[in-house]
Amino acid sequence: MGAAHAEPSWQLLRRGSGLIMSAGKAISVRLPPDLAKELGTLARVEAVNPSELVRAAIQHFIATRRTDPDFKERMRKRLEEDAEMLKRFSEQRP
Predict the structure, then answer these.
(1) Tens digits of per-residue pLDDT, 39-54?
(2) d(CA 68, CA 53)
(3) Contact of 62 with 55, CB cutoff 8 Å
(4) What's the CA gap between 65 and 52, in Å, rounded?
(5) What's the confidence (pLDDT) of residue 91?
(6) What percent of the chain clears pLDDT 90, i.e. is strictly above it?
(7) Which of 14, 54, 55, 67 is exposed most, by the fewest CB atoms within 10 A?
């Protein structure tokens, strides 16, 4: 046979990451009809719940940000700005 077939990322996530859960933070996401239809089709083809695909996509998005230097720089700047605002709001004014 040829090269090994890569396992879809959602299967890897399902197996050990704790993303498949019965309890957790529930959020509501509105999707345009065409995107919702595509998600439903992908979920049926992959034989998983659409929520599993959404969780896998979010985890992938977060993982890419953790290794993105530009994102890290934007986050550092945002944290500095937030720290400055916290300092301003914490100061007692007459």
Answers:
(1) 999 999 999 999 999 9
(2) 23
(3) no
(4) 20
(5) 86
(6) 68
(7) 67
Whether 85 is in a domain gets the answer yes
Pair 65, 76: CB distance under 8 Å: no
What is the amino acid identity at position 78? R
From residue 6, give the alpha-carbon distance in Å to each of 12, 26, 31, 86, 87. 10, 30, 29, 47, 50
Give the ranges where the chain is alpha helix by DSSP (H).
Answer: 9-16, 33-46, 50-66, 69-90
**DSSP character for 3?**
S
Nearest-10 crossing angle of helices 50-66, 33-46 = 100
Two structure tokens written together for 84: 């400055």
Domain that holds residue 93: 31-94
Cβ(9)–Cβ(15) under 8 Å? no
